[in-house]
Design goal:
transmembrane helix, mainly alpha, Oligosaccharide repeat unit polymerase, 20 helices, membrane, transmembrane, single chain
């Protein structure tokens, strides 16, 4: 645990921190600028590949041995299975939907962008670079995206200016849902997932801060960030609510042992976060009553789940009702279950069978073996990204995996681009430890 990470963040010049912040932002939100032929994340990915080639050539010229981390090789196995099963499904069904046929190269690009961002972070921080510093940058970009989304919601000129700069933004120019904050480079559920990742990172920093008795002010600051992103993030995407609750459970319950003191302390932590949220809402309503009264649509969207419950309709929202219907759409033939229909989307741009459920989309594309290969890959990325990053890495992995599985129930979501930076940091850390142990022997 880097107990002084908050101080170490500021040891490098401001402009270097700004460049790293921009790289991390693009890692989370792939800005597809209209003046670039490809998205900004792809640009960084190619820079990462170029940097990798340069490093390999430099080692060759120095006569050093070229080693490949076994973690990279292990990730390649499920990716090869995904490609192979895609080929089988497409050939058998006579379709040409290449959604997962090219997933190997897509994953390489996502990891490559993480490699470039990590290399730059390592360049400016050197041996001071830690998991905590990387996590703090990630939390920072999530917070900025949320503040920017709020600003875009209330400032029409800013919204039109920013949305005009990206290709995906052009399609959202005239779409302003009542009460829903937008984003820059990401929209709807993707914003909720990014918020969830940010909340998990805050939770692990809080957990470590409590364990190592780090500065009390820092703990208060992290708690405020959690509450701020948790509550206002629901106005971007209500996925934030569930992701935040799972992150809150991790922060509150760090052990899986069912001891009374453990459960009592965990419930007390949840109550403290809930009380903080209530205080924030009451304070806002008290200080700005007219503003709050004018935002009925905003409140109805963000708290629709609770409004429905108070009206006797149960815990439901418009999107949850639609999801309930989509959960009835599954393959009806043995062939579809085994190798899929080779379709992810239709020629009209709609998802095949009009389902948002991630598991169903994968099943319809390349069957159960393809779906399992994909989630084995995702689980491996998560495990290798957070392995031994903290004393609580095992429960962190379990709770994070629960979030991933839930999110994919609502819609297909991949997490590689969120975790690529941590993956690169962790395998570099292992390589450094291996070299140290070898030199000591």
């Amino acid at each position: 645990m880097d107990v002084d990470f908050f101080k170490r963040i500021t040891v490098v010049p401001y402009y270097q921190r700004l460049i790293l912040w921009i790289l991390v932002f693009i890692q989370f939100y792939p800005l597809d600028f209209v003046f670039l032929p490809v998205s900004s994340r792809v640009v960084i990915s190619f820079l990462g590949l170029i940097l990798l080639v340069v490093k390999i050539l430099a080692n060759i010229m120095k006569g050093k041995e070229i080693l490949i981390n076994k973690g990279i090789i292990q990730l390649a196995i499920p990716l090869l299975f995904i490609s192979l099963i895609s080929i089988i499904s497409l050939n058998y069904n006579g379709t040409n939907d290449k959604q997962f046929l090219v997933y190997f190269s897509t994953s390489v690009l996502m990891l490559s962008s993480g490699f470039f961002t990590f290399s730059y972070a390592k360049f400016i921080y050197g041996e001071d670079l830690s998991f905590e510093i990387i996590a703090y940058y990630c939390i920072g970009v999530v917070l900025f995206q949320l503040i920017l989304g709020i600003s875009m919601y209330f400032n029409t000129e800013l919204r039109f200016f920013l949305l005009n700069k990206t290709r995906d933004g052009l399609g959202q120019l005239n779409r302003k849902e009542a009460g829903r904050f937008m984003g820059f480079g990401a929209f709807f559920m993707n914003l909720g997932v990014a918020n969830g990742v940010g909340l998990f990172l805050i939770a692990i920093l809080l957990k470590n801060a409590i364990l190592y008795k780090i500065n009390f002010k820092l703990r208060i600051y992290l708690s405020f960030l959690f509450i701020f992103i948790f509550i206002l993030g629901m106005f971007q995407a209500r996925t934030t609510l569930i992701c935040g609750l799972i992150a809150m459970c991790f922060w509150s319950f760090s052990s899986l042992q069912p001891k009374w003191q453990y459960w009592k302390d965990g419930l007390f932590r949840i109550l403290k976060i809930a009380l903080g949220g209530v205080i924030l809402l009451i304070t806002t309503a008290t200080l700005f009553p007219e503003f709050v009264a004018s935002q009925t649509g905003t409140l109805n969207y963000g708290f629709e789940l609770f409004y429905s419950a108070s009206e006797g309709k149960g815990l439901q929202t418009g999107s949850s009702n639609l999801l309930s219907w989509m959960l009835t759409i599954w393959p009806t033939s043995s062939k579809s279950w085994l190798i899929g229909d080779g379709m992810y989307s239709t020629s009209t741009g709609n998802f095949y069978m009009r389902t948002d459920v991630g598991y169903a989309r994968l099943l319809f594309y390349f069957g159960i073996f393809g779906m399992l290969s994909f989630y084995v890959y995702e689980i491996m990325v998560i495990w290798k990204s957070f392995y031994k990053i903290t004393k609580f890495y095992l429960p962190f992995f379990i709770y994070f995996l629960v979030m991933v599985l839930f999110v994919n129930l609502k819609s297909f979501t991949e997490f590689t681009h969120y975790l690529a930076l941590f993956f690169m940091f962790n395998i570099h850390k292992k390589d450094a430890e291996l070299k140290l142990n070898t030199s000591q022997i």
